[in-house]
Amino acid sequence: MAALVKSETGFDEDFEAQEALARKALDLAHARRLPPTPRVFEVLYGYVRGEPEGLRNAVGALLERDESPALSAIERIYEEHLALGAAPVRLLSLGQTLDGEMGEVVERLARRETEDARFMGALTRIREGVNLLSRASTVREAAESLIEVTGAHAAQTSDLTSQLRAARRKIEDLSRDLKDLREAAYLDHLTQLPNRRRLDAVLEAEIAAAPERGPLCFALADIDRFKQLNDRYGHAVGDSVLKEFARILKLNLKGKDTPARFGGEEFAMVLPATNLMGARHIAEKIRQELAAKSFVVAETRERLGTVTVSVGVTQLREGEDAAALIKRADELLYKAKEAGRNRVASAA
């Protein structure tokens, strides 16, 4: 009888069935000439398993129209359907915990205010019981009561202060965790650039702000012959090239400019308050910097030769939405490739 294991979804699944699905996913990767990277495997495993439904439909449509899909297309599906992983549940849990801590702080502050009011009332009653004509014993009793009430209040206040300090530290930790998790959900793990999800949000916001801020440009860049580079030198070398190009993007984009990993070997640039000439100048500088780099395989010291990039740059038109802007940039990128690669194609 096959062993049973507990899945992340909470249901018991047959281990042999899981193994069969894994083999099926690997066979599918081989049949479609896809490298069995962790992301490719996770996407294809979800597809053969049939969940999540959105991923199943996306992969099914891709395989139907493309016998040998590009790695970038698989990675785009990963970003859209799997990149967040358990982040939504974790975000919700952190948010609920943070709300609970904030509620307790409010209760403690209210309790402290109540205790302060009681203390002031006790002081007033003691004071009203003593005057210049009071007997010595009365004054002594009043003084003892004052010391007792003050000591008790100080102890309560100290305890509440300690609790508030502890709660403050916990809230700061939770807030930091929440911030880190939110940022991680919008970052590409390899290049540490904003991912496609973040890019879409930024682009929508910049399009809305463009009428006030001025011209908005958008660019798509694609590393030339990246698949051949991966096939010949391996994915570790390919990853190094991607990270280096991401570094070049970060160095050349400043202020409100946003570089992002669009998917696979494709990158995007959102350039607010920048006209087409300025955007082309930035893209050309990035292209030249990558072409000037000398890549060497660390283990063998073999030189990769020149690694180049093609870029399509365009400027937002009046009334245009994000999808149309991206489409035009993609068409210009294709023209740059058709014209011989290692160049920038631009048009308003």
UniProtKB/TrEMBL annotation:
Keywords: Coiled coil. It comes from Oceanicella actignis. It comes from the Bacteria. SUPFAM superfamilies: Nucleotide cyclase (SSF55073). This is diguanylate cyclase. It is an enzyme of class 2 (transferase). SMART domains: GGDEF. The keyword Coiled coil applies. It catalyses: 2 GTP = 3',3'-c-di-GMP + 2 diphosphate. Pfam families: GGDEF (PF00990). Residues 157-184 form a coiled coil. One of its GO terms (molecular function) is diguanylate cyclase activity. Its EC number is 2.7.7.65. Residues 214-348 form the GGDEF domain.
